Amino acid sequence: MTIDLHAHSTASDGTTPPSELPRLAAEAGLTVLALTDHDTFAGLAAASAASDVELVPGVEISCRLDDAEVHLLGLFADPGHAALAAELELIRTDRDRRGVRMVERCRELGAPITLAQVREIAAGAPLGRPHIAAALAAVGITDAFTADWIADGGRADVPKHVLATADAIGLVRAAGGAAVLAHPRSVKRRASVSDAQLAALASAGLAGIEVDHPEQPPEVRERLRDVAASLGLLATGSSDFHGDRKPVRLGECTTSPEVFAALRESAAGNP
User: Fold this and answer.
1) Which of 6, 36, 132, 232 is such that its CA lies 20 to 30 A from the CA of 24?
2) Is residue 202 part of a domain?
3) Domain count, the chain
């Protein structure tokens, strides 16, 4: 088995339609793929219609950990779970409000972009910063994710509704899923999740952490592997595929069959 547990489609900020992802995954040599769009299961039905690979239902939830934003993967979670679905709808609604205001701020700062252009790039998905960044790049502003523009705390950034991470873990577990913290020490993010924070999340029911990830160099991965072992957490690997939006291949990082089986067992043990 070759397993990738983190990939995005056009249902959020990826560039590949969900119906196409299973075929691309099979061509990349994968046998298992998790579709983990941001705060939505919207692409799952289209992806499930294909039989090229085993498809794991998943979602990547925007969360708050102390004063930083982190992302939590909910793997094997039931998309129809009422409480989880309601919270995801609230996050998506607020994401759109935030996106509209961020476009306004970019215009106020002199960027000649329009909301219509950004919505066209999003193609029906909830507005996100990658869509705004693509619009900025189209007018020559290629440093969108900086303090000058839309980085966290940047001049055009707007706060958004996010769940406390422990609460998100509880929702994923209640929906019959396994909670995995995505890219906790990515070199592209300002905040790095500390050992103490990982220990607290383990106590809150976290099942695993994403260790092998394209944005985490080898020395970071080894440290995370040690921390995971000490806390009894599973160490996963995945590509965080976004199609053409990131220079990452499906299956660039993978999860072992043993860890995958343990994640499935962890999910099955939740309500």
Assistant:
1) 132
2) yes
3) 1
| pLDDT in the model for residue 102 | 97
Residue 219's H or E segment, with its range, is helix 218-231
Rg of the chain over Cα atoms, rounded to whole angstroms, equals 18
What's the one-letter identity of residue 229? A
Residue 27 Cα to chain centre, angstroms: 23
Residues of the chain with pLDDT under 70: 190
Position 159 scores a pLDDT of 87
Q: Looking at the domain assignment, is residue 74 inside a domain?
A: yes
250 lies in which domain range?
A: 3-88+161-268
How many C-beta atoms lie closer than 10 Å to residue 190's C-beta?
11
Assigned domain for 124 exists: no
- Decide: 263 and 76 in contact? Cβ < 8 Å: yes
Q: With beta carbons less than 8 A apart as the criterion, state whether 254 and 3 touch.
A: yes
Alpha-carbon distance of 233 to 236, in angstroms, equals 9
Amino acid at 153: G
- Give which of 149, 154, 155 is closest to 134, Cα–Cα: 149
Own/partner pairs, 84-90, CB within 8 angstroms, 24+ separation: 84/171, 84/172, 84/174, 84/175, 87/163, 87/171, 88/39, 88/40, 88/41, 88/59, 88/61, 90/161
pLDDT of residue 161: 84
Residue 188 domain-assigned (yes or no): yes
Say which CATH number the domain at 191 has.
3.20.20.140
Residue 105 has what pLDDT? 97
